[in-house]
Amino acid sequence: MGRRSRGRRLQQQQQQRPGSAEDGAEDGGKRSGAGWEGGYPEIVKENKLFEHYYQELKIVPEGEWDQFMEALREPLPATLRITGYKSHAKEILHCLKNKYFKELEDLEVDGQKVEVPQPLSWYPEELAWHTNLSRKILRKSPQLEKFHQFLVSETESGNISRQEAVSMIPPLLLNAHPHHKILDMCAAPGSKTTQLIEMLHADMSVPFPEGFVIANDVDNKRCYLLVHQAKRLSSPCIMVVNHDASCIPRLQMDVNGKKEILFYDRILCDVPCSGDGTMRKNIDVWKKWSTLNSLQLHGLQLRIATRGAEQLVEGGRMVYSTCSLNPIEDEAVIASLLEKSEGALELADVSSELPGLKWMPGLTQWKVMTKDGQWFAAWADVPHSRHTQIRPTMFPPKDPEKSQAMHLERCLRILPHHQNTGGFFVAVLVKKSSMPWNKRPPKLQGESAEPRGPVQPGPADPMGRSVSHPLELESKPAAGISDTEATERAENLENNENKKDGVCGPPPSKKMKLFGFKEDPFVFIPEDDPLFPPIQKFYALGPSFPKMNLLTRTVEGKRRQLYMVSKELRNVLLNNSERVKVINTGVKVWCRNNSGEEFDCAFRLAQEGIYTLYPFINSRIITVSMEDVKILLTQENPFFRKLSSEAYGQVKDMAKGSVVLKYEPDPTKPDTLQCPIVLCGWRGKASIRTFVPKNERLHYLRMMGLEVLAEKKKEGAVPTSESAASPGAPEDKAGAEQGAE
């Protein structure tokens, strides 16, 4: 439709509706009864097919339908989560409750009373909060500017995550511990991944937990969003990879000199879905909703869940979740997975794990509806012409005994009107034994000489999938064959496939296709590298420092940045370089100074990795007071004499170069900041400065009671407390780095 015809149509609409132009004028050009002034009508929050479908399936308790629909039409409340692993979490909570939330009391915005944020009753330790403020109000209202800046700044520095309430549930039910190997199969944009990283770092005194998180996403661009989220937490235990979750490669690890398959202790399987539980924030869903989306996604969801179950260790836990209310994407996937697992998987009863959370038990009976409203109660009723669109796995189990044994009522469905949230579905699966198709050892090439022909689906795989590669079959080999032997056999088979063609067997494995940007390699620094001894000497690194875990991203030329990963992730990287496409891993710990050769060490410390590195550093540490920290963060290059006498005594005889500035809380003064702070700094000729990114700088000042308003960039940051020293703190990391160079 052209611009003119659109204009004519708009004129006609206005003529048909007397008073609409005046409405627009009265609203001062805001949204009128007719819609936006650009001619885009407001989306009507109604969909008769949606209502008919869910009323027929009875997912809402009797008498609650009107409340359910009313809740769906209301905007979603804003929710935030305080990151639980940093020692600063309690301080941020204290700051939120005693300062920002108090300022919101008795406040009115656009005639609407602002409700003071409340903690989510089911989230542990009051670390998650919700408010009736929508994102739009937060951004636009001058009265809320300070609170909005606080949220933006703390989110950027990784101390707060703005995350939907229901999205916090799957990681909590995963019940991850610091020693667990965790796979997040469909991880982007990464809010759940950050929760999992926090669980690994539950004990802040352990810089390298035994566990790790491998976060995967099929979309290359979204992987970088995932990297951005994970980077805020500065963990050496996260690796971002880019694969199709339904055929994510099986990885290997070196265990006592033998290669063994990596099985995960915890798997989060938050699959792509039609998203009809997100109608409150994605208004488009009202207009676009149809059962076709669910019918098309069901197969992919089942394949992803199956792949996750294959890679789960016996006794491990997998959480399957969707932001859809549709049983085709929810219970049907779980029932089908349980059926083909033949007892290897079972649904865990998690009803008591999140006290305070309201949920509905999973359905045990449902029907399938086509996009034009035709219902089918069983697979036998589906005409042949519909067989490509509707599959047998979409229906509930026929055998009542089998259905009862599955305990589908243990699934959780969260409805929007119960606790003012989005709609959501979660199921927790526990693996009791190997999947049935993994118990058979892989056939060696040449064991079968039948001509290649159509493969008939076996009873163990009702989806009719042909397993693409024998390596996928040996999650738990048959008795009498060790894991390593099975892996060796499969590897030999892989090599044979490359040499011979036309021999019967499963189809040859597809070569891994790389999409998106070509990533720089991950190169571990050799043990005898001359780069390391000057660093070790300058910072007096202890003998326990794991130098084998240092890596760089350049094969040739000057290495500018040094990163660090945990021992377990190093093992994964070294043993799977050909098998997996790694987008990012490691936390930056050192950066090269351009003029570093003048000093005893060419590398300065990076703030990003200081909490990982600090436990191993034994020299160049300056203990500072709270007043010193304020001066260092608000002045650009304070002279030594501005520091306290204790700090001055430590710094005056120190050689030029990178330093660690450490603040230890005083438990005898409970009114002062009660969490330790470690900052990177630079000792110059007569002055000292910190290398701290802007948002982290603002975070520390806030924790010490200094509110820094972000003025226009040219004016710089202005501390509003009287105790603040002169302004002019460097605006960003780049500014700090230039100062050093």
UniProtKB/TrEMBL annotation:
What are the GO BP annotations of this UniProt entry?
tRNA methylation
Report whether Acetylation shows up as a keyword of the record.
no
Write one Pfam family the protein is assigned to.
Pre-PUA_NSUN2
Q: Which InterPro entries match?
A: MeTrfase_RsmB-F_NOP2_cat (IPR049560), MeTrfase_RsmB-F_NOP2_dom (IPR001678), Pre-PUA_NSUN2 (IPR057285), PUA_NSUN2 (IPR057286), RCMT (IPR023267), RCMT_NCL1 (IPR023270), SAM-dependent_MTases_sf (IPR029063)
Which portions of the chain have biased composition (kind: Basic and acidic residues)? 486-502
Keywords for this protein? Methyltransferase, Nucleus, RNA-binding, S-adenosyl-L-methionine, Transferase, tRNA processing, tRNA-binding
Q: Which residues are noted in the entry as S-adenosyl-L-methionine-binding?
A: 186-192, 217, 244, 270
EC numbers, comma separated? 2.1.1.203
- Where it mainly occurs, coarsely classed, is nucleus
GO MF entry, a single one: tRNA (cytidine-5-)-methyltransferase activity
Q: Which residues form the active site?
A: 323
Where in or outside the cell it occurs: the entry states: Nucleus; Secreted, Extracellular exosome
Q: Does the keyword Ribosomal protein apply?
A: no
Q: Which reaction does it catalyse?
A: cytidine(50) in tRNA + S-adenosyl-L-methionine = 5-methylcytidine(50) in tRNA + S-adenosyl-L-homocysteine + H(+); cytidine(34) in tRNA precursor + S-adenosyl-L-methionine = 5-methylcytidine(34) in tRNA precursor + S-adenosyl-L-homocysteine + H(+); cytidine(48) in tRNA + S-adenosyl-L-methionine = 5-methylcytidine(48) in tRNA + S-adenosyl-L-homocysteine + H(+); a cytidine in mRNA + S-adenosyl-L-methionine = a 5-methylcytidine in mRNA + S-adenosyl-L-homocysteine + H(+)
Q: Which residue range or ranges hold the SAM-dependent MTase RsmB/NOP-type domain?
A: 68-432
Q: Of which family is this protein a member? A: Belongs to the class I-like SAM-binding methyltransferase superfamily. RsmB/NOP family.
Name of protein: tRNA (cytosine(34)-C(5))-methyltransferase
This protein's species is: Delphinapterus leucas (Beluga whale)
